[in-house]
Amino acid sequence: xxxxxxxxxxxxxxxxxxxxxxxxxxxxxxxxxxxxxxxxxxxxxxxxxxxxxxxxxxxxxxxxxxxxxxxxxxxxxxxxxxxxxxxxxxxxxxxxxxxxxxxxxxxxxxxxxxxxxxxxxxxxxxxxxxxxxxxxxxxxxxxxxxxxxxxxxxxxxxxxxxxxxxxxxxxxxxxxxxxxxxxxxxxxxxxxxxxxxxxxxxxxxxxxxxxxxxxxxxxxxxxxxxxxxxxxxxxxxxxxxxxxxxxxxxxxxxxxxxxxxxxxxxxxxxxxxxxxxxxxxxxxxxx
Length: 287
Prior knowledge:
The protein is an all-alpha fold. The chain has helices spanning 2-7, 11-36, 40-59, 64-82, 86-110, 116-123, 131-150, 152-160, 162-167, 172-194, 200-203, 205-211, 217-242, 246-265, 270-278.
């Protein structure tokens, strides 16, 4: 404990905790919608093609972090434009991801220097963020949450019942593209903690666990954020104590949280059993 208190006095530790706090909030909010909209595969594609963007920007001597955001955003637009419906979306995701990964390999091959920055994105670099990085993460997080708040009601309606939402005039296609762009920003942030290879940890597991705790969309977001905070900050602190990688503890805590929600708490909640028996979801207003 004394060692941990001493470490908390260092600037890099304070930066890591501040960045983890911001990333967990954004990831927790977005995670619930990712699970509800069955977009886990899309998250994987956004992360891997974000790596392609990083490699491309590194090749032209630009920031790999900005390349990550750019690559994820471009991928989001492609997927949202070509695959609005869930049935066709997975096919589009697979095609785009395969092409993007090929480009990423090409960029890394052409780069003549040490690609340590790009490869660090594969595994996360939360303990290496600076004050400027934290400020950038806060800015991206505020924009992301603001955009999500602006489309929250139609997004919930389009998520619960897309056919009825479209019939009532909700722009389901535009909402899908907007949410994919929000996902791209969340992916760019979450990668700072767990990296491309483990991105599913923060953008799927909290929402999946929260879904087992309540059928109410608003309350599920609160639970999801709480779980993301627990896993991210807990992972950072455990990493400082043991000198093991942050991603190991973040993924372990996330998995444990899901198991507890699924098998220990979720089955005991009567309202969840009622929703499951009816095969329905709570009513959500269109606008």
